[in-house]
Amino acid sequence: AQRVTQPEKLLSVFKGAPVELKCNYSYSGSPELFWYVQYSRQRLQLLLRHISRESIKGFTADLNKGETSFHLKKPFAQEEDSAMYYCANRNNAGNMLTFGGGTRLMVKP
Amino acid sequence: DAGVTQSPTHLIKTRGQQVTLRCSPISGHKSVSWYQQVLGQGPQFIFQYYEKEERGRGNFPDRFSARQFPNYSSELNVNALLLGDSALYLCASSLEARGSGANVLTFGAGSRLTVL
Fold first, then answer.
1. Interface with B, mutate which of A23, A36, A95 (most B CBs under 10 A)
2. For residues B33 and B104, is the Cβ–Cβ distance under 8 A?
3. E strand segments, chain A
4. pLDDT, averaged across chain B
């Protein structure tokens, strides 16, 4: 069985500070990792995925298979980054996402 | 495109009752998935349907069932409701059944079910 762990329920930082939201996974197959974000009163939406190796809204995430991690990083947090962030792994059949418990990011002015 | 639409947005039921939740995928998307999100937790996979066939099932009891219609819309049914079924039920659609680089899930706003 696969598992995705986000150890921090809440992460509070000041505007302009660096941010790192941790995600660790456990999966016997080849992982396919995603970060989803949910802003206040909005629906869950895709932020980025590891296969694209993209930077979205200043966020990046690198898959580290040795450490089985996919941490989300941003060098300078903005107040509009405040949201719930969920890390997820897609199974090899491609039909199911396993989500972590989520981390609430609060960026204070 | 209105995106993934779900109805109803909120509903209240009592224990033992049955509920039906509805989902319309993004136009052109043939796959619909259902997730349950209990307060304070991440979404948990319930079902995936593609071309009216069940393609995946999560670890949920038989009280949970679903179906997909020819127009690719879907219904999730839950029988004999328990207090623990109180949650946000999310529907997500994608182009295809199997994952690939471009085939990502787009979520609806959810149906919030409260069981009293």
1. A95
2. no
3. 3-5, 10-14, 19-21, 24-26, 33-38, 45-49, 60-61, 72-74, 83-90, 97-99, 103-108
4. 93
Over residues B62-69, the mean pLDDT reads 97
Q: Is A98 on the interface with B (CB under 8 A)?
A: yes
Q: Which region, left, alpha or beta, applies to residue A26 given φ > 0 means left and ψ of -120 to 50 means alpha?
A: beta
The residue that leads in pLDDT, B107 or B99, is B107
Contact B104 A49 (CB under 8 A): yes
| Shortest distance, CA B74 to any CA of chain A (angstroms) | 16
pLDDT at B98: 67
Quick check: B98 contacting A, CB < 8 Å? Answer: yes
Between chains, do A95 and B103 touch, taking CB under 8 Å as contact?
no
pLDDT for B101 beyond 60: no
Per-residue model confidence as pLDDT tens digits over B21-61: 999 999 989 999 999 999 999 999 999 999 889 999 999 99
Give the tokens for residue B11.
Answer: 């509903």
Of A75, A80, A73, the C-alpha closest to A39 is A80
Q: What backbone torsions phi and psi does residue B39 show, to the nearest 5 degrees?
A: -55, 125
Helix, strand, or coil (residue B25): coil
